[in-house]
Amino acid sequence: MPDDEDRSAVEQARRVKLARLRAAGIDAFPVGFRRTHTLAELRRGWDAQLGQGEESGDVVRAAGRIVLRRDMGRLAFWTLRHDGHELQVMLAVGALGADQFEVVGDLDTGDWVGVQGPVIKTKRGELSVKATEVYLLGKSLRPLPDKWKGLTDVEVRSRQRELDLAVNPAAMRAMRVRSQVVRSLRESMLAREFLEVETPILNPVPGGALARPFVTHHNALDTDLYLRVASELYLKRLLAGGVDRVFELGRMFRNEGIDSTHNTEFTMLESNSAFQDYRDMMELARGVIQEAADAAGVGRRLSYRGHEIDLDGGWSELTLLDAVREAIGQPDLAYDWPLNRVRELCDKHEVATEPGWGTGKLVLELYEKHAEHRLTGPTFVTDYPVEVSPLAHPHRDDPFVTERFELIIGGREYANCFSELTDPDEQRARFEEQALAKAGGDEEAMVVDEAYLRALELGLPPNAGLGIGVDRLVMLLADLSSIREALLFPQLRPEEM
């Protein structure tokens, strides 16, 4: 980007040009422009048909932003870009006339223009429109970044996504991948006969996940409400009403830290299916992620941050406890160890702990610090401790854990799932344990949700729920290093204007 002094001079010069255009009776910000073709349609329609130096005779009207210009006296060339596609425009005094050729000399890179003229291919083989008319559609008063240095500052790219999209093809590609992924996820769920629903974003109690919520006040109702941290509890209430399978693609909000894989506002695919368990959800997760990779055009064998990921091969499975045992070299670690012995193990491996944590929470901390990042290929990490899974059904064969998995790819979590707890008395007991933890200072702990417990007492069929992080899936499929790049407008500190 130009420094402030240079940019100020450029902006001043552009305003002088704007005044000159207006004095000549040219509207620099008109309404509408009738195109006959997009730039992509011109590429598809004529690029293969014309040979070098050939003219089609087909007159078209197209539009785009000037991103490059070359002036050669009585001849000029522009490169227009729009919607991720580019096309050259040839401007000659003979075709435009001297007066209009002089006017277009006041146009700059960054300006939006419409052009009319025949489609040709230059002697160098470049598909072009030979302009006979040029229309100014929007004057750019701020300069684009230097064409050679580009726009690389991550902070600027994230704050000014419109600028990022204008000059960085990779940003446009990431946006398209995201659109394809979201569309694919929706179509995959609909094809499996899931019903798409919408649940409240403002909730009377925060629930469905261990997370710190945002709180606001509803003036008309004179009550505090919370931006949802998950939609899970509402989805299960629908199953209690007799719906077979449901899903929601929506925004969630967690008042927590921001880093390369976390944003306070993010998109989740959440679903629940009656009469299924967490192993059925493994197949669902595998299927919809593979189909998203196909839809994004990246294939099922891809490279992500230097790791070769095979989404088409075997997806591994291991328990959380076994992952910890292997990572720290403690093959006899067990959930029935004395609590002080597990604490000593955490101290040995430099894992910070809190006084109120039980064995399950301590083992989870060991896993997150020492084991998770080691799992490169798609891996279902199963059987999470009861203590850290307040909504999950107890494992049918092991009282210390639940029927829950997280899907790890490239050392990061992409999905969370469990066979749902349907016993209202057990759920109340777990909610009360969570409420005690919250009263003790755990801001991520849940509260007692009486409306949800009432639904459980009505009767909830056996079911399983699956949540997939859409932003992280976009990161994986577009090979992005930060969640900022997967979001069009990530959350940032307030900007000093």
Q: How large, in whole angstroms, is the Cα Rg?
A: 29 Å
Instruction: Give the overall pLDDT as a whole number.
Output: 93
Q: Taking strands numbered 1, 2, ... along the chain, how are they ordered across the largest sheet?
A: 7-11-12-19-18-17-16-15
Choose one word for the global shape: elongated
User: What is the tally of helical segments?
Assistant: 16
Helix fraction, binned, reads 25-40%
Question: How are the SSEs ordered, and which strands pair?
Answer:
Blueprint: H1 4-23, H2 39-46, E1 55-71, E2 75-82, E3 85-92, H3 93-96, H4 98-104, E4 112-121, E5 127-130, E6 133-138, H5 154-159, H6 161-167, H7 169-191, E7 195-196, E8 202-203, E9 215-218, E10 223-227, H8 232-240, E11 245-253, E12 265-274, H9 278-296, E13 301-304, E14 307-310, E15 316-319, H10 320-328, H11 339-348, H12 359-370, E16 379-382, E17 404-409, E18 412-419, H13 424-439, H14 450-458, E19 463-469, H15 470-478, H16 483-486
Parallel strand pairs: 3-5, 7-11, 15-16
Antiparallel strand pairs: 1-2, 1-4, 2-3, 4-5, 4-6, 8-10, 9-10, 11-12, 12-19, 13-14, 16-17, 17-18, 18-19
Helix pairs in contact: 6-7, 7-9, 7-15, 8-14, 10-12, 11-12
Could you name the key traits of this structure?
16 helices, 8-stranded mixed sheet, 497 residues, 5-stranded mixed barrel, alpha+beta, 19 strands, 25% strand
Account of the 3D structure:
The chain has helices at 4-23, 39-46, 93-96, 98-104, 154-159, 161-167, 169-191, 232-240, 278-296, 320-328, 339-348, 359-370, 424-439, 450-458, 470-478, 483-486; strands spanning 55-71, 75-82, 85-92, 112-121, 127-130, 133-138, 195-196, 202-203, 215-218, 223-227, 245-253, 265-274, 301-304, 307-310, 316-319, 379-382, 404-409, 412-419, 463-469. By secondary structure, the chain is of the alpha+beta class. Helix 7 (169-191) packs across helix 15 (470-478), helix 10 packs across helix 12 and helix 11 packs parallel to helix 12 (359-370). The chain is elongated, with a radius of gyration of 29 Å.
